[in-house]
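Try this one yourself first.
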């Protein structure tokens, strides 16, 4: 039996339950989890903002050790450390043929499969975002595991699977921040803290962190923020005042709220770039008038998974970690067990802390 955090229905509390996993069949891999990050996307799945089949085992940011492989799996073997990749690319859809693997049309096909069964009643469970990382062990498709790069502690490697790929990619792949430019990062959670570190790596001359919580200032400054603004109706004005009344060159929105997206856009200079990373609900409507779009010449773009290719980007991130430029541990403000995930959700809703990490 394996212990797991199960979402019985949308809007229902998580339940810590025993599950039975199948042996890995052809093209499948069994992994014993070392750690799993509690991401805002897991909260979005639980409350219905993002929809996947339920009941499900949640968790999509994780790392662990391969314990068994099915027929045809050759890139990993039992004993290997792996990072879970919740959005494996198919390689053949239109987006993949364009090299935009983060937009793969088939990436989440596995979420509808039967992943495991509850031991108490035998009911079928789905794998959340493909990998079901909120469990002591999981069985995933071979494309959902990538070898942990050399020199990266297995527990820290879990953060590479979502928060770091997303935050780093938003800065380097989507916003394409250049050395000497200025940037504002909205939201100092796990992804936002990764974006702040990425901005520092990019050589930004001014890095403004924005969050509703004054308590996150020290955390943000350790990640690379040169300035900290507590979110208010005057946020855009404050950011422009910090940049000679021009506004920042780029804004990274990691919240997913209409007001925050609009504020991020207004915080950039004429011709500036706003990248939206946060996942908002359908009710979050952002409005612009035609004249301001013309006058300001700003760019507003969405960003999925940091516009990252995990196979390409993990070695790059590992290099930054080994050279001391990227501190994975600095993203973590709480280390918990499976039983602590509901409280971690509550802290996320309240805007407290950075990344909570489930350690097995």
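Now uncover the answer:
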């Amino acid at each position: 039996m394996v212990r797991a955090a199960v979402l019985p229905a949308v809007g229902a509390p998580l339940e810590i339950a025993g599950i039975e996993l199948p042996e890995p069949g052809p093209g499948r891999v069994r992994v014993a989890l070392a750690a799993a990050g509690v991401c805002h996307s897991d909260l979005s799945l639980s409350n219905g903002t993002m929809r996947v089949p339920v009941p499900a085992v949640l968790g999509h940011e994780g790392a662990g050790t391969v314990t068994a492989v099915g027929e045809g799996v050759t890139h990993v073997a039992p004993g290997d450390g792996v990072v879970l990749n919740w959005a494996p690319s198919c390689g053949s859809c239109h987006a993949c043929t364009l090299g935009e693997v983060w937009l793969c049309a088939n990436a989440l096909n596995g979420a509808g499969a039967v992943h495991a069964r509850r031991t108490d009643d035998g009911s079928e469970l789905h794998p959340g975002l493909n990998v079901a990382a909120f469990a002591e062990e999981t069985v995933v498709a071979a494309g959902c595991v990538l070898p942990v790069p050399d020199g990266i502690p297995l527990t820290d490697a879990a953060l590479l699977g979502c928060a770091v790929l997303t935050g780093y990619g938003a800065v380097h792949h989507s916003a394409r921040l250049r050395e000497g430019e200025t940037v504002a990062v909205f939201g100092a959670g796990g992804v936002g803290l990764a974006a702040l570190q990425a901005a520092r790596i990019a050589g930004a001359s001014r890095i403004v962190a924005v969050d509703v919580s004054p308590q996150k200032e020290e955390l943000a400054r350790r990640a690379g923020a040169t300035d900290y603004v507590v979110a208010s109706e005057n946020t855009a004005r404050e950011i422009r005042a910090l940049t000679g009344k021009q506004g920042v060159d780029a804004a990274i929105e990691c919240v997913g709220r209409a007001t925050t997206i609009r504020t991020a856009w207004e915080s950039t200079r004429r011709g500036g770039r706003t990248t939206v990373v946060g996942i908002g609900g359908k009710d979050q409507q952002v409005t612009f008038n035609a004249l301001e779009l013309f006058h300001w010449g700003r760019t507003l773009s969405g960003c999925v998974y940091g516009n990252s290719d995990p196979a390409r980007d993990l070695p790059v991130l590992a290099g930054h970690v080994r050279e001391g430029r990227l501190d994975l541990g600095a993203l973590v403000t709480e280390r918990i067990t499976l039983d602590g995930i509901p409280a971690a959700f509550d802290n996320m809703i309240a805007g407290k802390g950075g990344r909570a990490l489930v350690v097995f």
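Discussion: The first strand starts at residue 2 and ends at 7. The mean pLDDT is 96.
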